[in-house]
């Protein structure tokens, strides 16, 4: 996948995440992380908004794990 394709894919994922349900957001997070990692590995700048989105999603994933723990 070319760098341009990765950038387009990251933008499309961000748009999908914006309209997704809570569970849908959690399912899309690993895909977004992989695309961002590939961009960084190719030496391309990763937009801050996408890094922040990924960080928020990671927090949501962690929170969801704790929501399912028995007390």
- C-alpha-based Rg, rounded: 13 Å
Number of helices in the DSSP assignment: 3
Low-confidence stretches: none
How many domains in all?
A: 1
Instruction: Give a quick account of the main beta sheet: strands, pairing sense, barrel closure.
Output: none
Question: Which shape, going by the Cα principal axes?
Answer: elongated
Order of helices and strands: HHH
Distance between the termini: 45 Å
The tally of beta strands, per DSSP, is 0
Mean pLDDT: 91
Helicity range: over 70%
Helix/strand/pairing category: mainly alpha
β-strand percent reads under 5%
Secondary-structure map:
Elements lengths: L2 H17 L2 H20 L6 H20 L4
Helix pairs in contact: 1-2, 2-3
Supply the key terms.
71 residues; mainly alpha; 3 helices; 80% helix; 0% strand
What does this structure look like?
The protein is mainly alpha-helical and 71 residues long. It is built from three helices and no strands.
Q: Can I get a quick summary?
A:
By secondary structure, this protein is mainly α. It has helices at residues 3-19, 22-41, 48-67.
